């Protein structure tokens, strides 16, 4: 891994930590709050690409495990990684990897609407399809209840998917993916 990629991974881990400073919105019916951090997951995958995007989220999870208060609400440590939020958090590197993979595949013709769809499939649906069943398992509730409860995230996640797509397309020229595609 090149130094530049390590710096990008660290910067995006820091960005996701900063997004964690935005207060979470607790939902009374499920133990997982609404946060801004999934915006960072979508940005990392779409801007950095599959490898560096996934590494940035793995680094972020290491920071959480070390106890740094980088999750929304100032949380950190092992509890969030094994509690009701575990499936959501552990899905983030997978989501960033798949968003990056899809963005790289269509980079030369990447448009906002295409990246929005990529973000919806991998940054919203995949995260919910991993996070909700794990939350249900840990809280000993039916999986269908977890999936229905996670539907509360959809409006905000759709907005985050749009924001990430617009930002990435606007700064596409400085993305590390651009360098890979054009061999710079």
From TrEMBL:
Keywords: Cell membrane, Membrane, Transmembrane, Transmembrane helix, Transport. It comes from the Bacteria. It is a multi-pass membrane protein. Pfam families: BioY. It is found in: Cell membrane. InterPro entries: BioY (IPR003784). Its main location: membrane. The chain crosses the membrane at residues 7-23, 29-48, 55-73, 85-103, 115-138, 144-169. Gene3D superfamilies: 1.10.1760.20. Belongs to the BioY family. This is Biotin transporter. It comes from Saccharibacillus kuerlensis.
């Amino acid at each position: 891994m090149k130094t530049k990629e390590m710096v990008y991974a660290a910067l995006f881990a820091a960005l996701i930590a900063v997004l964690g400073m935005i207060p979470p919105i607790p939902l009374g019916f499920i133990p997982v709050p609404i946060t801004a951090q999934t915006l960072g997951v979508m940005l990392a995958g779409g801007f950095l690409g599959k490898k560096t995007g996934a590494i940035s989220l793995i680094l972020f999870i290491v920071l959480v495990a070390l106890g740094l208060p980088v999750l929304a609400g100032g949380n950190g440590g092992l509890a969030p990684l094994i509690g009701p939020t575990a499936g959501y958090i552990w899905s983030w590197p997978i989501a960033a990897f798949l968003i990056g993979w899809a963005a790289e595949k269509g980079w030369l013709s990447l448009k906002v609407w295409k990246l929005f769809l990529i973000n919806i499939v991998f940054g919203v649906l995949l995260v919910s399809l991993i996070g909700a069943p794990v939350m249900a398992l840990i809280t000993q509730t039916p999986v269908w209840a977890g999936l229905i409860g996670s539907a509360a995230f959809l409006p905000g996640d759709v907005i985050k998917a749009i924001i990430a797509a617009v930002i990435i397309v606007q700064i596409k020229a400085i993305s590390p993916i651009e360098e890979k595609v054009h061999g710079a």
